[in-house]
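Troubleshooting entry. The earlier prediction with adenosine-5'-diphosphate gave an output that would not parse, so I re-checked the input for stray whitespace and re-submitted. Clean input:
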Amino acid sequence: MDFYLGIDFGTSGARGMVVDEEASIQAQVRYPFQDSPAAVTPKIWQEALFVLVQQIPDQLRREIKAIAINGTSSTVLLVDAAGNPTDAPLLYNDARGSLVLEHLRSIAPPNHTVLSATSSLAKLLWMRQQPSFSEARYFLHQADWLAFLLHGQLGISDYHNALKLGYDVEELKYPEWLEKLQIPIQLPKVLPPGTPIAQLRPEIADKFGFRRDCLVCAGTTDSIAAFLASGAKLPGEAVTSLGSTLVLKLLSRTRVEDARYGIYSHRLGDLWLTGGASNTGGAVLKQFFTNTELESLSREIDASKASELDYYPLLKVGDRFPINDPNLPPRLSPRPDNPVEFLHGLLESIARIEARGYELLQQMGADKLSRVYTAGGGAANDTWTAIRARHLQVPVVASVYTEAAYGTALLAMGGGIKGEQE
Ligand code: ADP
């Protein structure tokens, strides 16, 4: 039997999942990072990768046909000709790129995805100004570098990771305006996610007991991997992530982009994964309630009745999607004495914001919403699911799987993206 390995590098640790030809999970392995995200170095990523692989039972490892890796989107690094990092990576949320944004604005098209302090391209421009830049030969994303450790080829990426580098995912080439930046470095060659790149390096295959012909495929980003795991496949199907923040993703035949709202589309084979992220979400609930309270109080809410409380739950001022207003104040009053009523108001209000988000995506041209899968800490809350279904007017279900590693294993199997193999 052939097996497929998906590896997920998140902020708190790395995970691996092995699936069989039927996409059933055969093994799961984990490597939690001991250090805070900022202290996790490429050396630790490398160790995590190899420790994960070693944890997979021998008999499964011998039959793995293909491997894919997802990294954290916009975590990037420079490496020398041998693939050794020349400086510390810039992590996904590093905003030092704000220092080069003005320059970038003068060259990139208005409202382009790269025009954000944390975009990969802004990070690359910032890196260019550092002394260590002269030693660098290749600019890579986290997933590209980790895959390189397995297949040994430098300078290869996928079009999910490369989106925020400015790669034109419609034309499948780097845009001409990028040349005006005259960056003296090898930008990665970009492949469709899941494309086989090369066999494992023979020394890696032998050392870890893999087949010599085990393939390493182009990877993806963490959030797309989680989307692939959800079970959503058809245009109109969406995944809401109810974690610390509220993240919406709607599969569509049309691409929608609007940097003002932080809306952009990833390419998924013949389709587009449109999406936006709001600062509202579970982090605000956590400010007022423990997880146990969230569970018990939610059970007392009558989900069929709408709460009249109209909040905009935020931790601090400002949101981008579905309301683009950096000065938008958190709205959390009036606060009723009864905690059940207060929680009802919060869940109802976040559900309204979610529905408004999907409306905005559809107004901009995305396909009509038909079904919403749900991931994140809030997905287990049946009361909230019922409130959301009332607002969204479509079936709301839990994601089939929520682990990014599972989605990436599907990618390695070649079954991750509709249309990719057609
Ligand atoms: P992160 O985005 O940090 O990975 P998680 O997906 O782990 O977040 O979800 C954590 C969030 O889920 C917390 O902010 C918490 O308030 C929220 N949460 C946990 N349990 C519930 C629940 N039963 N109902 C609603 N929200 C919940």
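This one parsed fine. The chain has 13 helices and 17 strands.
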